[in-house]
């Protein structure tokens, strides 16, 4: 059931397939006869410098995959000099992740009807040195993930 959670998509998984296909369609443009003695992919997001234009997207429940969960992911982000976005549905607490490493951390938020829950979480994230809120707006309801239904 853990594997299905990570690998599965909703309904007939057409969007999941299209996500993979979309990346396959992206080609690197070769640039010929230019100086490659120093290659630098670094960039910045909201003023924070990172080693490449890649950050850790918010994903739920890392402890399903590893006992150290998001703490280990945040340490890896710090080692790679990039940003860790901690999921609202993280298996480690905001405080555990904050004290585990010095990665630049953003906090992902779903907005529930109970706005006081969101407010409390934002305050906890702020208090623990998270630098930005990543608002997830595309999940007004969860997709119908048939593998999860089967595994219940
Ligand atoms: C296993 C899994 C768990 C996820 N959990 C969350 C989550 O907790 N919060 C969230 O905002 N997005 C979550 N996402 C969405 C990812 O952040 C999203 O896939 C990522 O932003 C990459 O976007 P793309 O799939 O459109 O390329 C999850 C995705 C996967 C595959």
Automatic annotation (TrEMBL):
Names of the cofactor(s): FMN
Keyword Oxidoreductase: yes
A Pfam cross-reference name: FMN_dh
UniProt entry keywords in alphabetical sequence: Oxidoreductase
Domain of life: Eukaryota
Residue intervals of the FMN hydroxy acid dehydrogenase domain: 1-152
Name by which UniProt lists this protein: FMN hydroxy acid dehydrogenase domain-containing protein
Organism from which the protein derives: Acer saccharum (Sugar maple)
Gene Ontology MF terms in the entry: oxidoreductase activity
């Amino acid at each position: 059931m853990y594997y299905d959670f990570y690998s599965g998509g909703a309904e007939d998984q057409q969007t999941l397939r299209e996500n993979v296909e979309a990346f396959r369609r992206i080609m690197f443009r070769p640039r010929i006869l230019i100086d490659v003695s120093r290659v630098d992919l670094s960039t910045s997001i909201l003023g924070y410098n990172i080693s490449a234009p890649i950050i850790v997207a918010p994903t739920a429940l890392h402890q399903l995959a590893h006992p150290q969960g998001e703490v280990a992911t945040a340490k890896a982000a710090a080692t790679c000099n990039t940003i860790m976005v901690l999921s609202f549905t993280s298996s480690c607490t905001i405080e555990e992740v904050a004290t585990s490493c010095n990665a630049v951390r953003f906090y992902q938020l779903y907005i529930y009807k109970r706005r006081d829950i969101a407010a409390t979480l934002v305050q906890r994230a702020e208090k623990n040195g998270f630098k930005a809120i990543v608002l997830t707006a595309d999940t007004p309801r969860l997709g119908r993930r048939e593998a999860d239904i089967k595994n219940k």
